[in-house]
Amino acid sequence: MADEADLESLPGVGPATADKLLESGFDSFQGLAVASPAELANSADIGESTAADIIRAARKEADIGGFESGMDVLQRREQIGKLSWLIDDLDDLLGGGIETQSITEVYGEFGSGKSQITHQFCVNVQLPEEVGGLRAGAIFIDSEDTFRPERIDDMVRGLDDDVLEITMEDRGIDGEADDDAALEALTESFLDQIHVAKAYNSNHQMLLAEQAQALTGDSQDGEFPIRLVCVDSLTAHFRAEYVGRGELANRQQKLNKHLHDLMRIGTLHNTAILVTNQVSANPDAFFGDPTQPIGGNILGHTSTFRMYLRKSKGDKRIVRLVDAPNLPDGEAVMRVVQDGIKPE
User: Fold this and answer.
1) Rounded to two decimals, what is the model's pTM?
2) What is the pLDDT confidence band of residue 62, given thresholds at 50, 70 and 90?
3) Maximum CA pair distance of the chain?
4) Which CATH number, 3.40.190.150, 1.20.5.320, 3.40.50.300, 3.30.70.270, labels domain 76-343?
């Protein structure tokens, strides 16, 4: 992480400006390099031309913003982590699991299991890499009052015995997979690595995303660096506060900024961004499924992977990959049970 002296080496950045940048979460050359002049100008109370000069200098220091070869891109993509569903069919559908440095959107009607997926991944991300995790922490931005610590307890206890034993050993917890005291200690250690914040409105949600960037950056040198940011749900507040066509442009503009703030976290800190989305029914659809996600083209273009979740018989859910840059469309089945998300 850069310190104040590093920032002051940039043109137009004095002690006062450096303090304002640090308070706004711009603590590295890379973070400054991917900012927009308007955003930087508002954060540091400087002119846009000065902000543009700072960004250009930061890009030079961070060595980003220019062209690179396809081989360079391939080598950089080798740093991307894959977070397993712990369900073979779903991992195969996504080419190994949810990617870091990407936004994965899961949408579906109420009761389809979207929040169950976010809880499950808050568990899975903490598992050792040898069993499909990233041995990392998670952030949970809660806009619908969905986060339940008790559900994390269910899902930790519902892990396979071999996964539990490997994870206990990794965390220095003595006991077997059926040892209640050891399971309680393990659950507490999992909850300690999930950072939860409740968003009360869309502006607060956007502020929490900015704070999440700072928290993620601060965690990188720790034992459990944050590698997952969940937003459940992304669109609930925006949908409730901006009603009617007259508010549509303003809503989409703010949603676009919010998505790019989340994307910046993923890019800068090699973090997976998992968002849930609400749906509406298209009254013009006479054939097929009328369900469509909220957010329009802004969300459709920004999401790297887009998955549609729908109910099936009993506890079964159909997961359909709707859009991905390098994968074909497809479907897989999972079950939502007391122990968490499980194979069919």
Assistant:
1) 0.85
2) confident
3) 63
4) 3.40.50.300
